[in-house]
Specification:
The protein has 6 helices and no strands. The chain is an all-alpha fold.
Length: 124
């Protein structure tokens, strides 16, 4: 099973830093974007932000492959949450969930791919 030691220095944790930044942005987004009073949207981004940031911090402290998979699931769940929870008509909430959720999912997918295909990283 490939592990993180097959990755070079900066590539080891950049996806986790991206996920942490997205988690923080997701958490604070209701205030500057003005949807703090829409309870479903606000609670969704607060919970999603905390979950994503916590998993990203755990991955930064000590890597385990399950963390990358958990971030992928959390990112996709965040991106789908406006439709699942019915606040898709709130355009700012929809945009922040979809954009930041997909960024987290793509960063996690890239990390999973790099773990599963270390030869592709070594060729660079």
């Amino acid at each position: 099973m490939p592990n993180e030691t097959s990755l070079r220095g900066g590539e080891k944790k950049i996806q986790d830093w991206i996920s942490l930044a997205c988690g923080v942005l997701l958490f604070i987004s209701p205030w500057p974007l003005g949807f703090v009073f829409d309870v479903r949207a606000a609670i969704t981004v607060w919970v999603g932000g905390v979950v994503i940031a916590a998993i990203a911090v755990a991955a930064l402290v000590q890597f385990a492959e399950w963390e990358a998979w958990a971030l992928l699931v959390a990112g996709l769940a965040t991106a789908a949450s406006p439709w699942a929870l019915g606040f898709y008509v709130l355009h700012r909430g929809l945009a922040v969930c979809v954009v930041l959720g997909l960024i987290v999912a793509l960063a996690s997918a890239a990390k999973i791919w790099s773990l599963r295909h270390p030869a592709a990283i070594a060729r660079r």
